[in-house]
Write a structure and sequence with these properties.
Blueprint lengths: L1 E6 L7 E7 L2 E8 L2 E6 L13 E3 L2 E3 L6 E3 L5 E3 L8 E2 L1 E4 L2 E5 L3
Antiparallel strand pairs: 1-11, 2-3, 3-4, 4-9, 5-6, 6-7, 7-8, 10-11
Bound molecules: FE2/S2 (inorganic) cluster.
């Protein structure tokens, strides 16, 4: 099922926007005009990735500088070793939606 996470206007260009929906933390990104959504907490610790840095298509964790590839969630740099969950995304009007499995 598709659920609305936020407005596309909430997501800054080449940066990250945190959304908490039903207690789950997500990060939404707009990179070169394309939208992406990942989980919002680092898989290495309990750091909020929205407080990290977006470098091209990489998000760097603010706590220990672990890195993840935003489009795929794969680990791009230690100490993170578990991939970040990513979500299928679509835009409906101004709504940024992700697909959640029932
Ligand atoms: S908590 Fe993110 S790299 Fe350690």
């Amino acid at each position: 099922m598709w659920v609305t996470l936020c407005s596309i206007d909430d997501v800054p260009d080449e940066d990250v926007h945190e959304v908490v929906r039903e207690g789950h933390v997500y990060c939404a990104y707009r990179l070169s005009g394309s939208h992406y959504v990942t989980d919002g907490l680092c898989t290495h610790g309990v750091a909020r990735l929205c407080e990290g840095f977006v470098l091209d298509d990489i998000i760097e964790c603010p706590m220990h500088n672990g890195r993840f590839h935003i489009p795929t969630g794969r680990v791009d740099g230690p100490p993170a070793c578990e991939a970040l969950r990513t979500y299928a995304v679509r835009v409906e009007g101004k709504a940024l939606q992700i697909r959640l499995e029932p």
